[in-house]
Design goal:
Structural class: alpha+beta
Order of helices and strands: EEHHEEHEE
Number of strands: 6
Shape: globular
Helix content: 25-40%
Number of helices: 3
Low-confidence stretches: 1-22
Length: 160
């Protein structure tokens, strides 16, 4: 697991839920998932709308389409893991600049996500963090002292 570039969610400043904004070329969106049902498709739809707003979709090339699909898959995997292993997700954060998109899912869980090792492709289940690791430039976990839960983040490269 990598934690080479952890960034505390509070470092970016407050953003209202679902809002988009720009700070030094960075666009952000947040979605509250606490108490919602059907959070995985809700999170994917939210991410798809953000990708449209940020010009990632509709994709003009196969590489751009693949980059957008990778983001949607990472969102799905992180939200699913929060549902299965961490008492459900609290919030989805998406941040985008010209080079990187950052996906963060906050939850109340105490566990530490890790890719299953050794990875066995034919074995059912347990592929989420392996997929996140393979698709991301980097990923990690941020914990805030004195606060329960954690934020699992992943960064993916913007399409060329």
């Amino acid at each position: 697991m990598s934690t080479t570039r952890p960034c505390s969610p509070g470092d970016r400043g407050p953003e209202p839920s679902g809002a988009s904004g720009a700070s030094e070329g960075r666009q952000v969106r947040r979605l509250s998932l606490d108490g919602e049902s059907g959070v995985v498709p809700l999170a994917r739809d939210f991410a798809r709308q953000a990708l449209h707003a940020w010009g990632w979709l509709p994709a003009a090339t196969a590489d751009r389409r693949a980059a957008a699909e990778d983001v949607l898959l990472v969102v799905s995997e992180l939200v699913t893991n929060a549902c299965l292993h961490a008492e459900g997700p609290d919030q989805l954060f998406l941040g985008c600049d010209n080079k990187v998109i950052r996906v963060e899912v906050s939850d109340r869980g105490t566990g530490q996500p890790t890719p299953r090792t050794p990875h066995r492709a034919g074995r059912p289940g347990g592929h989420g963090m392996f997929i996140v690791q393979r698709l991301s430039l980097d990923w990690g976990v941020v914990r805030t002292p004195g606060v329960s839960g954690k934020t699992v983040w992943a960064e993916l490269g913007a399409p060329a």
